[in-house]
Amino acid sequence: MDAIIQMSHRLKMKVVAEGVEQAQQVDILRKMNCDIIQGYYYSKPLPLHELIEFMEYWEIEHRGRN
Known about the structure:
Layout: H1 2-10, E1 16-17, H2 23-31, E2 36-37, H3 48-63
Parallel strand pairs: 1-2
């Protein structure tokens, strides 16, 4: 995975890791400088109205952490 991320970055491409389900996977991908991480670790697939609520809640929760 690390080689794919490095090669993609050298080609000026963003990398999306899909299907991430565990905190350990998130930590490893962050250490490898993966650009975008998505999967059940963050949320199950949601209908649009629930996604908007989730994003609003997430933004409020993380605003104080920066």
